[in-house]
Amino acid sequence: MSKNFLFYILCCFVGSSFAQEETANDTTNVDLNYREDQFYISVTYNLLNNKPTDVSQSGFSSGFHFGFIRDMPLNEKRDFAIGLGLGLSSNSYNQNMLIQKDNTNQFTYTVIDKSVDAFKKNKFTTYLVEMPLEFRWRKSTPTDYTFWRVYTGFKVGYVIHSSSKYKGDLGSVKTSGIDDIEKLQYGLTLSAGYSTWNFHVYYGLNPIFKNSAIIDGKTIDISNIKIGLMFYIL
Known about the structure:
Layout: H1 3-25, E1 39-49, E2 62-73, E3 80-94, E4 97-101, E5 107-111, E6 121-138, E7 148-168, E8 171-176, E9 184-194, E10 197-204, E11 214-215, E12 218-219, E13 223-233
Antiparallel strand pairs: 1-2, 1-13, 2-3, 3-6, 4-5, 6-7, 7-8, 7-9, 9-10, 10-13, 11-12
């Protein structure tokens, strides 16, 4: 993801935050049927769970997530709600598992011995369309835009593209469209915080790779955990 794009997203977030503060200070037009947190932006650190023996992460594995959520209040005070949304997600995983194709055009997976190959880069990346479902509790009012919130739920993602990049003693190896990656990814989510800053965690419930992905004679049962910050915007 380019720096210019990230700068654009940040500018939109800052501008929207100021707009929310101005609206909150204007009590002349109070909307008793207000909705909350329609857009979201999240930055996460991605962890690999259930790694095969000798597979380890290195460097910073990042995730960028943004989208729209339809807020649907469930009570008269509008402090309980359901949120259903649609978004995009980019996730990179820096580690020492080399992904490449063999002579039959099949994907192979091997652990890189760092004592033999001091590689400069080795990562795989997934791009997903996501649908979050949130059960929302917040302390908001029609005129208060700074409040406590706890949002928990479930997220389903569909992988639309995947790739891997390696740069080291073997030269440069790039692959795309990794067939062994599960198209459907799903997990539990939790976002909690006050005002702009919210802690966010995603716990993947299924493996990233299919059973067809084999390393040292065993299936690669890696799943993911994402920890970071979530920003909600009206």
